[in-house]
Specification:
- The chain has 24 helices and 17 strands.
- By secondary structure, the protein is an alpha+beta fold.
- Strand 7 and strand 8 (about 165-175) form a beta hairpin.
- The protein is globular and about 100 Å long.
């Protein structure tokens, strides 16, 4: 056969491995080679310029114009030793992707020659226009001013290209009037808020040496790899990132033989190449392995400060896709690219670290005396309980709706898993009367006898929990694989900062009334646990029983994005974000509008692609096969074969007619519903229409299409099948 499908299969099966040679057998020899890190700054900056950057990173000190010029000159000189000719402000608009506009160092001089120049003003701030990015009404199209501003806390880096290298400077992106138009600006504000609240509590109650703190994050990234040739003849994969049609293969992930299995040679070569590029960019990848679905894989880095971890994850996704091209692969980051097999997530492992080196969510060797651990542990549970709907909104997207609760990922119900041992610890806490809690040897000794000596290994994992404690961190498992983790981290760190501020206010009030510090802390923590324990769940989050139990507990089960996003514009959310100086009401309304509109656009694109596939791919294949069957029946009739001799063929002909009719009618209805939805002015109501009127018809069309795929002669089916997409490597 000469169809595109079979040509793509021939190409995929004939590929050979690309030769990959890392710069050294030791990663440490080239790690951070393309990053303007501390070592590079000390080599290329004056002492004064280096100190100015260090102060900006550590204390948020403003860099003056003279110092900015010196820093820019040093950064340019370093970059030029790496073959760089252009620079860009690298930012994260509300599209979910990263953005860049390249400018050359080259600058003409009056005498007709040229010099390589990079001024401090170009480093610190630029006006890239960028008026077409989503803004939710914060900008008019004719108002072009949008500014990018340097984020010194995330180091500049060099992106290598086949025809030149580019210096990338991480920046925020804001409107002329100052409102945030990106993910980084509010993230930095949320991180500042949580740092302040953590330091206030630690310094006041536990350790006066704590003067700084940061939220740490480790992002596990799941993804699929399929051959690029097969990808390119699937319009749905090309345009939506997922297969809108496709019959599940007879063998999928039932045997779980792919999970943690031997990595296919061609895939491993890609991984080595990809990791090499990441190491040069300072991305500390530590782990790689096969995931549970066929052709699904995972990589995971060491923990980093949240802002840097998110920059690195955004960069990682970009690098992954570029490297895949060299190997004839296509990376699929969609949360649910294939029906019937597991989708992909991006598990966010979050904790709080002090400048004294203490992980505030690690119980330590003697947890029975660790009041500090209990303070931050219980406050996290309380923050999630009080803001569960907002946390659910932070991971809402059209793509993630396919995954949440689909017997593979955490459900849409927000709950916290802490394990039976820690549950018992908290039960003991509320049932034990506080004695004189202070020991003569330790100002933080408390009388909770049943806390075991080693808590780190006494917490199991729960794969069905969206927010699980895993020994010394919380794992937010519900974040989608294609998402910018900043969205979830803005919310998580904001609600934690707000909760810690409330906690300190309540404790200080108790102390002012005459209670001892430790007694006041314990009393508040007991109350928090009692009021928020409904959010704790140890069982199977996939089961129907949990849905019923969650309803009894008063927990929300918000299954779709349009409904989930409403939490962003609730009175409580506006109050929380404004009080902690993260978003103002206008910014929140804008983001809400952008996310609802994004949902509409994605479902609309999927509907159009599905209609085109059904009409121009599926139905023609069905009619061609039906014609062959009809010709066969006619031939049998012409030689005198009675009806019993062609009854099977006749049934196939009838079935094909039934499925073709159903597809055609469903496509027409889907198009009509889409047209009606587009005429709804209110964005939220329009999103609801696409969610509840247009999207359900996808399943109707798919059901009949997949039935036809099962019936129709293999040579006539135009689209690469699941068995080819998932198993041809």
């Amino acid at each position: 056969m000469s169809t595109l499908r079979f040509k793509a299969l021939e190409l995929a099966q004939s590929r050979t491995q690309v030769t990959v040679t890392p710069p050294s057998t030791k990663v440490s020899d080239y790690f951070n080679a393309n990053v303007f890190n501390d070592i590079a700054m000390k080599s290329f900056l004056s002492k004064e310029a280096y100190q100015a950057v260090s102060n900006a990173i550590s204390n948020g000190t403003k860099i003056d114009r003279v110092m900015a010029d010196q820093i820019a000159s040093g950064m340019k000189n370093w970059a030029m030793t790496k073959g760089v000719s252009h620079y860009t402000h690298w930012f994260q608009p509300l599209t979910g992707a990263t953005a860049e506009k390249h400018d050359a160092f080259f600058e003409p001089t009056e005498d007709g020659r040229s010099i390589e120049k990079f001024a401090g003003s170009a480093l610190v701030q630029q006006e890239p226009d960028a008026s077409s990015f989503p803004n939710g009404g914060l900008r008019n199209t004719f108002e072009a001013r949008g500014y990018t501003a340097w984020d010194p806390s995330s180091p500049a880096f060099i992106m290598e290209g086949s025809n030149g290298n580019t210096l990338c400077i991480p920046t925020i992106f804001v409107a002329y009037t100052g409102e945030a138009l990106d993910y980084k600006a509010p993230l930095l504000k949320a991180l500042h808020a949580v740092e302040k609240s953590v330091v206030d509590i630690c310094a006041a109650y536990f350790d006066k040496n704590v003067t700084k703190a940061n939220a740490s994050l480790g992002i596990e990234q799941e993804y699929f790899l399929i051959d690029a040739a097969l990808h390119n003849v699937r319009p749905d994969l090309m345009l939506t990132g997922r297969t809108l049609l496709g019959l599940a293969p007879e063998k999928g992930q039932q045997l779980e033989d792919h999970y943690f299995g031997s990595i296919p040679p061609r895939v491993q070569t890609f991984m080595v190449d990809f990791e090499t590029e990441c190491y040069k960019l300072g991305i500390p990848l530590k782990t790689r392995h096969n995931e549970v679905a066929p052709s699904q894989y995972e990589c995971a880095p060491n923990f980093e400060e949240v802002n840097l971890a998110i920059d690195h994850n955004q960069l990682l996704m970009d690098v992954m896709e570029k490297v895949a091209q060299r190997h004839g692969f296509k990376v699929l980051l969609h949360e649910k690219p294939f029906a019937g097999v597991n989708g992909s997530g991006k598990h966010n492992n979050w904790s709080l670290i002090t400048n004294t080196g203490i992980n505030l969510l690690s119980p330590g060797k003697t947890p029975q005396t660790n009041l500090q651990f209990l303070t931050f542990f219980v406050n996290t549970i309380k923050a999630v309980y009080d803001n569960a709907d907002l946390l659910r909104a932070s991971i809402a997207s059209a793509a993630n709706d396919h995954r949440l609760g689909a017997n593979e990922a955490p459900p849409a119900i927000m709950s916290v898993f802490i394990g039976s041992m820690l549950t018992q610890v908290l039960e003991d806490l509320v049932s034990t009367k506080t004695k004189s809690a202070v020991s003569s040897k330790s100002a933080t000794s408390i009388d909770v006898k049943k806390i075991p000596e080693i808590l780190l290994d006494n917490t199991d994992r729960n794969r069905t929990s969206p927010f699980a404690f895993t020994g010394n961190k919380f794992e937010f498992r519900a974040v989608g694989s294609s998402a910018n983790s900043a969205n979830a981290m803005i919310v998580l760190n904001a609600i934690m900062a707000d909760q810690l501020n409330k906690f300190k206010t309540e404790v200080d009030a108790q102390i002012k009334k005459g209670k001892k510090k430790e007694e006041a802390i314990l009393d508040i923590l007991k109350g928090y646990y009692k009021s928020s324990k409904a959010i704790l769940f140890e069982g199977n989050g996939y089961g129907d029983a949990w849905v019923k139990e969650a309803a009894k507990r008063g927990l929300s089960n918000i299954k779709t994005t349009p409904e989930a996003l409403n939490a962003y514009i609730s009175t409580s959310a506006k109050k929380l974000f404004e009080k902690n100086d993260i978003f103002n009401a206008r910014e929140l309304e804008a983001r809400y509008e952008i996310m609802q509109e994004s949902y509409v656009k994605k479902i609309d694109i999927e509907a159009k692609v599905l209609a085109q596939l059904a009409i121009s791919h599926v139905i023609p294949s069905a009619l061609t096969y039906q014609q062959k069957l009809s010709e066969n029946v006619a031939a049998l009739k012409s030689i005198g074969i009675n009806k019993a001799g062609y009854e099977a063929q006749f049934k196939f002909i009838e079935e094909i007619s039934k499925y073709v009719k159903h597809i055609r009618e469903s496509v027409e209805k889907m198009i009509a519903e889409g047209d009606k939805a587009h005429h709804i002015e209110n964005t939220h109501k329009r999103a609801l229409a696409f969610c509840h009127k247009v999207k359900p018809l996808f399943d109707e069309i798919r059901k009949s299409s997949d039935a036809l795929e099962f019936i129709i002669e293999d040579d006539l089916w135009k689209l690469p099948k699941y068995r080819e997409l998932l198993f041809v490597k």
